[in-house]
Amino acid sequence: EFIVADLPGYGYAKVSKEAQAKWQKYLEEYLLNRAQIKSLIQFIDARHDIQKNDMQMRQWVEAYNLPIFTIVTKVDCIQRSKIQKVVSEVKKTFGGDVLPFSAEDRYYCENTIKYLIDLSKK
Question: Who has the most CB within 10 Å: 9, 14, 36, 64?
């Protein structure tokens, strides 16, 4: 059994700075105090370069030595011939495991689900 929790976004949420600051405090407490967490997942949009807040989040996660892998989303929005290039660029920047994913046309869904199931068994 495993649970995937979608936590508040750190970049695109349309809320006040005050609300974002509260979220950040609670998010940090949650992530640092939950021994049950097997891994964090950082979602990166395939249509855009890695953003400043993506880098900041990754640096924070790595500073606390939390387990993390990356899913490159919306690969259906880029040319198929460019998917591996985008995945390679993200892997070069972040390291670790990087999985492409498209909810729209379900490319790579089975690989991602298998990865999550394998992770839950560790």
Answer: 9
* Cβ–Cβ under 8 Å, residues 71 and 44: yes
pTM reported for the whole predicted model: 0.86
Report the 10 Å Cβ neighbour count for 13.
11
Task: Give whole-number Cα distances, 8 to 45, 109, 115, 119, in Å.
Answer: 16, 23, 23, 23
Residue range 55-88, pLDDT digits in tens: 988 999 999 999 999 999 999 999 999 999 999 9
Give 54-66 as a DSSP string. HHHHHHHHHHTT-
